[in-house]
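A common beginner's mistake is to predict each chain separately and then try to dock the pieces by hand. The better habit, illustrated here, is to supply every component at once so that their relative placement is modeled jointly.
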Amino acid sequence: MAGIVDVAREAGVSTATVSRALSGKDYISPATKALVEEVAERLGYVPSASAYTLVTGRTKNIGVVVPYVDRWFFSSALETVDRELVKAGYDVTLYNLSSGDDHRKSIFTKSLPRKRVDAVMCISVRMSEAEIQSLAKVNKPIVAIGGPIAGAKCIKIDDTAAGKLATEHLIAMGHSKIAMIGSSEIDEKFFDVFNERRAGYELALKDAGITARDAWYKSVSKYAISEGYAAAKQLLGDPHNAPTAIFASSDELAVGAMLAAKDMGLTIPNDLSIVGVDNHELSDFFGITTINQNVHGQAAQLVKTMLQLLDDPEHEVADQLEWPVELIVRSSTARLVS
Amino acid sequence: MAGIVDVAREAGVSTATVSRALSGKDYISPATKALVEEVAERLGYVPSASAYTLVTGRTKNIGVVVPYVDRWFFSSALETVDRELVKAGYDVTLYNLSSGDDHRKSIFTKSLPRKRVDAVMCISVRMSEAEIQSLAKVNKPIVAIGGPIAGAKCIKIDDTAAGKLATEHLIAMGHSKIAMIGSSEIDEKFFDVFNERRAGYELALKDAGITARDAWYKSVSKYAISEGYAAAKQLLGDPHNAPTAIFASSDELAVGAMLAAKDMGLTIPNDLSIVGVDNHELSDFFGITTINQNVHGQAAQLVKTMLQLLDDPEHEVADQLEWPVELIVRSSTARLVS
DNA sequence: CTGTTAGCGCCTTCAG
DNA sequence: CTGAAGGCGCTAACAG
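With all components supplied together, the output reads:
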């Protein structure tokens, strides 16, 4: 591999000139610039990232931390984050926490502080105090989606408001027997949005003067169609407490609930209304009314914020930006006919 | 951030000793080793990746190229690849090709050759001659899943065999009117496995003396439930050519087909048998008979191969490893009753 | 506008 | 077993 000295020699100039010609900054005569570029091209010269980093302190690389990559929320966010970062000239190195706790630790204490990244993005990662400390010591900008982290700029939706909005929609449609399916998964990896959504659900019921019943609440172990299916069957089969509407805390659960209802001979939305959260592509296909949280929008905003911080570390950015949610009404909800 | 000199000074030794103590190699007295380790720990010393790379030439980082990250196959593979690589002490930097062609070009000509990675893994990425050339110039090991790349070690399933096996299963169950849904998506980003699967399908029909009909073949634009649904409706509604069985070239398509059949009043598997490919988690839930391609197994093997190559570049590895597929029979296929 | 000169932080011979 | 010295490839002053 040709180095900068090879280019310099071949072009008959100094390495400093080569550096200037190729970086674009600093004054340089158009002629030599063109010459250097031609030679560099011909020799297939590519600057060494490590040498560049060593001297400038900048890596042009962003560390992105995710709890998993093969789950909808995270892969969706990652897709956008990566795309936007690449456009801005950054590489992204991925730190996936699903490898286990010991590796998790080394990610925070070794990998991230290794001066391999200019900033760190956390996609809905719940971190311990110690981990936040480790990160802070790196002294690099930190931005996050999904939950507040001390010392980081964060973007998140108001999950309480989301749960409330979904439930209010159901109430406005005349429903009063409204169940909720949520995941109380004990997962230390990521922020559990569930409790907030449930709080919103209960708030809406309370505002409407409806007394929540324990039997209306089903907890599942993960956000999967199969789980929503099983939970809905339980809910709908209950002879005393069967609901006329279900609020599922994710669209995947909602799809499962819809399938369960159909298998039980119920028609949607006549016999049962369902609303989910996410605006997952599946909810469009299945016609599920949902709360759109626009992951791609959040992710794009996250990158934007990070770029601002990188550009000007003193830039004023709110510690927490609340991303708006909206209700998307489709064919899974309808007025209750009694 | 403490550097190696800080540790050396604090421990009262030379930087060379610190380096030796921490790297573990070379002779060093247990006492000084312990001392250095204690000091390093106390000072929160973390070696700079770029300095390390600059002098050793090694990065402890692997470049992983994917066409998309938010699609099942790729996110599944990425999850395993990352997990295994982290276990082996490597970071992963992600090169997502979905950012557009100009960025794609710079990934191959700039990012990858920048000496930021020790090796490159391509997850089902179709590359042009020029791109392969760029990569080859990096002179680093290249391993791939999904399709042959000159100069790279590759793992792939035999897609023709997969299509044949699926179809043969249907034939063995007594079916002769067998349709196929596949994606002929023109996507330059990744290897199109579809044509091979179709070839296998046709081969099986031919072997059984069945003449394929054009009307049995439906092409869709992408691997999505919605597409499988639409295609199956067309197939099943055809008054002259309605099949009794469908081979879908992915499980997502198969799920769509199943849903379409149900909506049309058909019961699975009595009125229609369906087989997919992937062993996607959905196929388990929906009880779809499928061809398991074991993405996680392929990905793990890929990492293993790469590690061998990194360990010993002369290591003998076949240019192409054929990953076995197996038929998983579930409840979406049954003997044809006539 | 361009060349010279120092390092960036670390590993690695080579001496001791 | 340990220290001194050189250099990995590049950029950023500082001179010219």
